[in-house]
Write a structure and sequence with these properties.
548 residues; alpha+beta; Nitrilase/N-carbamoyl-D-aminoacid amidohydrolase; 2 domains; 6-stranded mixed sheet; 23 strands; globular
């Protein structure tokens, strides 16, 4: 159930501002030989993580921040545990009590070693601290949407471990806790095999006495779906906290570009804290103001080494809900009368060089789902790019109709250039580099089945173009969006526009609506569909375009 806190300052027309911090930091790596063995050893891990929070929250408070955000499951280091050992780093959290509730500082540390320490830090610094952890709660009877199998349940205790975000207020009170709605997974892999998934989906908002702001919470993979985000937006929330352990993949799905795009799509202040555990394979954090002209600190380490930690601080202004209205919900589209299958794509290739050279108009499409066009002017540099049109379900089970500009040599398969979401091996050897900076680049997308539009860009350094005002989105028609990048000095890695079909009921979907998901069937269908598109292209393609 969504508990809605009245948005009094926005309703009164007052301007409300606050200073926030996000911390990109890796939690403690347990020693596999000793720290998986007992509740006592798990408590050592949780206390060590709480000590890191104390250290970094102190830095943030010294910079004037009133709310500090840490990454997904930071408190439990749960990513390193198995279904049989994660119970040692889980804690039986009480229900959230709100601003007037009791402090958890001083709670028996043998029961809540992480929570009691972080509550004391929040009280000492007079700030609000949000962090990921793992909550121990009774097992549910729901099934994984992809495997149709039960989630892990400890037979001895009857408890399951739930990926959770918690907010501790300036008196140490538990302002809110939220259980992740959509665990990280693809059609072929459950990426959180130790955790259970909370059901039914329970959107959470909370009033933060440190800032006077009402925040919404969700975690990592939740950002891909209409639930629970649409419920928060419908409640008038325009400040969202996003702890994540985002696994890198293809250029359009890197962490900072996804964060930037969500903030733009919904006109929200988006506080995104990622891990620093695996360099570019799992990192990327930022504070993304609804006001594109506001300062927006972001961080992405290009190397592979474990990060030493990064602190981003920004001043944010709460936006009125009517500044970016929530579009009406739409169901997932179909392919004719059939349920959706996996991504189908089509590409056209072009080479550019500067200075002041025009980018010839290029076009690509996938049936009725997506039509794409790109043109522009090169400022400097040179590179080989492709315009790729993609539509269907990606392998995390969400619908996208995308237009993507990405570095790609002519004749290369579009799948090799665009990559996939949550595929860190694709970036282990390095990220694609485009090489050309554009005085102007325009990407137009027409997606008649979409109700929500995300768009962003990445420079060759893995960060979004600065200033954020360099990238703007216009609406030539109800089903068409034009993303324009102007005056960005950086060489461009990718620029993309993605239409989503979102509703409050949207969640992870198997290809063709068949659960459990069949990756073999998805692969065969992708091959058949791509071959069909190639055949159509061969019949009618312009002489300067080719596809794969």
């Amino acid at each position: 159930m969504l508990s809605v806190v009245p948005l009094l300052p926005a309703l009164a027309g007052a301007t409300l501002s606050y200073r926030a911090a996000v911390v990109e930091l890796a939690s403690v790596v347990p020693d596999g030989g000793t720290l998986h063995a007992s509740s006592a050893s798990g408590a050592l891990v949780k206390r060590a993580n709480a000590a890191l929070i104390d250290q970094w929250a102190t830095k943030a408070a010294a910079n004037g921040s009133k709310i500090v955000v840490f990454c997904e499951e930071f408190g439990s280091s749960a990513a390193y545990y198995t279904a049989s050992t994660v119970k040692y780093v889980s804690e039986p959290l009480p229900e959230a009590s709100g601003p007037d509730g009791p402090s958890l500082c001083g709670t028996d540390p043998s029961v809540l070693p992480f929570s009691s320490m972080v509550a004391c830090t929040a009280r000492r610094l007079n700030v609000t601290i949000v962090s990921g952890m793992t909550d121990a709660k009774p097992c549910g009877d729901n099934l994984s949407p992809f495997t149709q199998r039960p989630f892990p349940c400890d037979a001895e205790t009857g408890l399951a471990s739930y990926n959770t975000a918690v907010a501790f207020g300036p008196k140490g009170q538990l302002l809110a806790k939220y259980h992740k709605s959509h665990l990280a997974r693809t059609w072929s892999k459950e990426s959180e095999p130790a955790n259970a998934e909370w059901a039914p989906i329970d959107p959470v908002t909370f009033f933060d006495p440190s800032t006077g702001v009402t925040f919404g919470l969700f975690i990592c993979n939740d950002v891909n779906f209409g639930s629970p985000a649409r419920a928060l937006l419908a409640a008038g929330v325009r400040d969202i906290i996003f702890p994540t352990f985002w696994i890198s993949g293809g250029a359009p799905w890197m962490a900072v570009t996804m964060q930037d795009a969500f903030s733009r799509a919904h006109g929200v202040n988006f506080l995104a804290a990622n891990t620093a555990a695996y360099g570019r394979m799992a990192s990327g954090s930022g504070i993304w103001p609804a006001d594109l002209a506001a300062e927006s600190p972001q961080h992405f380490p290009y190397g592979l080494a474990r990060g030493d930690g990064w602190l981003g601080v920004a001043d944010l202004t709460v936006q009125p809900p009517d500044a970016t209205p929530l579009p009406p919900a739409v169901p997932l589209p179909k392919n004719g009368t059939a349920a959706l299958g996996p991504f189908v794509g089509n590409a056209t290739y072009f080479s550019v060089s500067g200075p002041s050279k025009a980018v010839p108009l290029r076009q690509a499409s996938v049936g009725e789902h997506i039509s794409c066009a790109v043109d522009g002017v090169v400022a400097k540099g040179a590179g080989d790019y492709a315009l790729v049109a993609i539509a269907g379900l990606n392998h995390v089970g969400m619908y996208e109709a995308m237009c993507v500009v990405v570095p790609c040599a002519a004749g290369t398969a579009w799948t090799a250039c665009v990559g996939e979401q949550y595929a860190p091996r694709e970036v282990a050897a390095g990220l694609p580099r485009g090489g050309a900076a554009f005085a102007e680049l325009r990407v137009q997308a027409r997606a008649p089945n979409a109700n929500t539009w995300h768009h962003s860009a990445l420079c060759d350094d893995g960060l979004t173009p600065r200033p954020r005002t360099a990238l703007q989105l216009d609406s030539p028609s109800a089903s068409t969006r034009l993303s324009a990048l102007r005056g960005a000095a950086c060489p461009l890695m990718t620029m993309w526009v993605s239409g989503h079909a979102e509703s409050e009921a949207e969640g992870p979907t198997c290809p063709f609506g068949k659960a459990p998901c069949s990756t073999d069937e998805a692969s065969r269908a992708r091959t058949r569909a791509t071959a069909f598109v190639d055949a159509l292209k061969a019949e009618s393609a312009a002489p300067d375009a080719s596809s794969s």
